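Continuing the batch. This is chain 6 of the set; chains 1 through 5 are on the previous pages. Same settings as before, nothing changed between runs. Recording input and output for traceability.
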Amino acid sequence: MCRYRKIAQDFGTPLGKCIVKDISEHGAKITYSAVEELPNEFLLTMGMNRQHCRVMWRHQNEVGVRFGAPKA
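Output for chain 6:
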């Protein structure tokens, strides 16, 4: 199921909306219009929840992310 979500930089600056196409407890596949402009780490807002994301791969307008804590 596809769901529209919001993406923000780690410090909260909004980057735009995305579509989450596939999600698990460990990560997600996201469609975003400017994949090449996404930082390697960002926040994905899903309702009241925020998930820290780390980019694992990029292809055309899709990106695969892994959920977890930011790198120290």
